[in-house]
């Protein structure tokens, strides 16, 4: 016989208030996406209005914040006293036990979903015309392929997260464990069983999402290295040939060609770049004719699957932050061009305060509160961006004066600890935000680089080492170009410990061919 009873089970999960969710979402938007968001809010909320240039964006004393053009902090000054409200609230709402997977913040920027659903035919026609003339970005191209896919909320969010972490060549920027770490709570403890289970759930969703991402076009997107990129393209081409009937999937000769090409992908890339048939033959246990045929097949593939998207610059890029020399330091200020001129509509707000009852009174009060939250969230967004920019400038002042060779090692955790913010907050700020400096305009994340040990016990940033490699190659003898091993020796002579493989990695990142090809050029 079934018995019923009551039981008490303790548990908590991370709950984000609507205001906090809005602040997080606004923080991760680029300036262009923010402009679209502001326009949408102006259309949807009658309590928001566009302020004239000479007026402060928010004169409402009850709005909880205001925007102006007075963001200007010299390097070396004290950080802003304004607290990061959404991050503080996040800290206060942490559960004593690990949050459930569904409570994690998967809300990353989805540019493909931005836009207005207005009914104005003229606006729709203009938007369609703009889209027709604007080149498609890699992110838009990938998101368009996901329309109609029957994915769960977690897997879809994980897939969008991976797309947001693709570099300009279409490669995944980071391994899955490190990407999962970004999504964990700040106080996650590796020894905690609950957090361990949470990490495993994240890795599972990211692994599923990666398999889905690598099925999309362009072939090879989502690869973590060149070899994986080539393998993905070979596998997709083989499937396509079989589906189109161009080749019998059971044809031994064709199958053997693809199998050999896949084995070649596991060999050193330098041998493939030189087409060193003599050394590849014994490594792959194949005759010369077969190796040459497989190399010809590999030559048809694209090592940079997102190449056609990386050169697309449909809009003039407007920096979010302006950095200029000032005395012995630098001034750091928000670019006035990206500051929304927005305020709470004082006339409507005053009229509503004069009403105590009436039809729809509660709904109108709610819309007024939403308007105030939105303006306050904008204030928090720009304040956080400014604080992060100031901290970056303080760390990378050498770069601002002398260029890439003076870049210091810096990771997100350094800025997060300095500003007492969550590392994921710093990640959102550095993605899609740009800084105009005396050395040029760069995305925030450009200023973050890992370090290499020096013989003095210090470290040199990977960006600085890349700059040194570029300088060494630019000064080399064209008739006898420097090998990667020789460059490693020259760096060691300058006190920088850099292995030959690391030199090759940095050289490829600089789009510089191997020594044999440089000599041929």
- Beta-strand content bin: 5-15%
Largest sheet: 5 strands, mixed
Number of helices: 23
- What's the average pLDDT? 75
Instruction: Please state the overall shape, judged from the principal axes of the Cα atoms.
Output: globular
- Side by side, the strands of the main sheet go 2-4-3-6-7
End-to-end separation: 86 Å
Number of strands: 9
Q: Unreliable runs, pLDDT <50, ≥5 residues?
A: 55-133
Structural class: alpha+beta
Amount of helix: 40-55%
Rg (C-alpha, Å): 27 Å
What this model shows, in words?
- This protein is an alpha+beta fold and 521 residues long.
- Among the domains are: 15-82 and 318-448, no CATH class; 226-304, no CATH class; 451-520, Homeodomain-like (Arc Repressor Mutant, subunit A), CATH 1.10.10.
- The chain has helices at 18-28, 31-44, 85-92, 121-133, 138-145, 153-164, 176-183, 193-213, 226-244, 252-264, 269-274, 277-284, 288-299, 307-310, 346-353, 361-395, 397-402, 412-419, 423-430, 462-474, 484-493, 500-509, 515-520, and strands at 48-50, 72-74, 321-326, 329-334, 342-344, 434-437, 440-443, 451-453, 459-461.
- A five-stranded mixed β-sheet has the order 2-4-3-6-7, with helices on one face. A two-stranded antiparallel ribbon has the order 1-5.
- A hairpin with a 2-residue loop joins strand 3 (321-326) and strand 4 (329-334).
- The radius of gyration is 27 Å and the shape is globular.
List the keywords.
single chain, 521 residues, alpha+beta, Arc Repressor Mutant, subunit A, 5-stranded mixed beta sheet, two-stranded antiparallel ribbon, 23 helices, 9 strands, 50% helix, globular
């Amino acid at each position: 016989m079934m018995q019923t009873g009551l039981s008490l089970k303790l548990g908590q999960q991370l709950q984000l208030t609507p205001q906090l969710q809005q602040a997080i979402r606004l923080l991760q938007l680029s300036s262009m996406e923010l402009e679209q968001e502001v326009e949408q809010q102006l259309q949807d909320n009658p309590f928001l209005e566009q302020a004239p240039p000479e007026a402060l964006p928010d004169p409402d004393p009850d709005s909880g914040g205001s925007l102006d053009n007075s963001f200007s902090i010299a390097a070396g000054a004290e950080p802003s006293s304004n607290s990061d409200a959404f991050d503080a609230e996040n800290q206060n709402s942490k559960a004593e036990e690990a949050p459930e997977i569904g409570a994690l913040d998967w809300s990353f920027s989805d540019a493909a979903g931005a836009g207005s659903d207005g009914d104005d035919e003229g606006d729709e026609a203009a938007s369609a015309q703009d889209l027709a003339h604007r080149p498609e970005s890699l992110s838009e191209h990938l998101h368009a392929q996901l329309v109609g896919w029957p994915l769960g909320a977690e897997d879809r969010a994980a897939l969008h997260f991976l797309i947001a972490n693709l570099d300009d060549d279409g490669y995944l920027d980071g391994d899955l464990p490190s990407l999962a770490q970004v999504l964990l709570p700040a106080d996650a403890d590796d020894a905690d069983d609950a957090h361990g289970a949470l990490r495993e759930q994240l890795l599972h969703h990211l692994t599923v999402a990666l398999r889905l991402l690598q099925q999309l076009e362009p072939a090879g997107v989502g690869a973590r290295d060149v070899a994986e990129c080539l393998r993905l393209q070979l596998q997709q081409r083989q499937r396509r040939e079989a589906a189109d009937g161009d080749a019998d999937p059971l044809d031994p000769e064709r199958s053997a060609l693809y199998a050999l090409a896949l084995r070649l992908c596991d060999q050193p890339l330098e041998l493939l770049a030189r087409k060193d048939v003599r050394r590849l033959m014994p490594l792959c246990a194949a005759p010369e004719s077969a190796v040459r045929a497989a190399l010809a097949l590999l030559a048809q593939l694209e090592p940079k699957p997102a190449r056609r998207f990386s050169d697309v610059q449909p809009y003039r890029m407007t920096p979010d932050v302006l950095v200029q020399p000032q005395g012995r330091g630098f001034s750091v200020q928000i670019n006035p061009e990206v500051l929304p001129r927005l305020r709470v509509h004082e006339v409507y707000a005053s009229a509503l305060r004069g009403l105590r009852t009436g039809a729809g009174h509660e709904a109108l009060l709610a819309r007024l509160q939403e308007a105030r939250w939105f303006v306050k969230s904008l204030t928090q967004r720009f304040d956080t961006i400014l604080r992060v920019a100031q901290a970056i400038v303080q760390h990378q002042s050498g770069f601002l004066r002398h260029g890439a060779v003076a870049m210091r090692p810096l990771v997100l955790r350094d800025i997060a600890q300095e500003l007492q913010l969550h590392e994921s907050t710093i990640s959102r700020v550095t993605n899609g935000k740009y800084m105009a400096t005396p050395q040029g305009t760069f995305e925030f994340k450009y200023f973050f680089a890992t370090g290499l040990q020096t013989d003095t016990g210090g470290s040199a940033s990977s960006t600085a080492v890349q700059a040194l490699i570029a300088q060494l190659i630019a000064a080399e003898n064209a008739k006898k170009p420097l090998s990667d091993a020789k460059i490693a020796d020259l760096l060691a002579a300058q006190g920088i410990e850099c292995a030959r493989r690391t030199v090759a990695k940095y050289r490829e990142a600089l789009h510089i061919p191997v020594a044999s090809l440089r000599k041929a050029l």
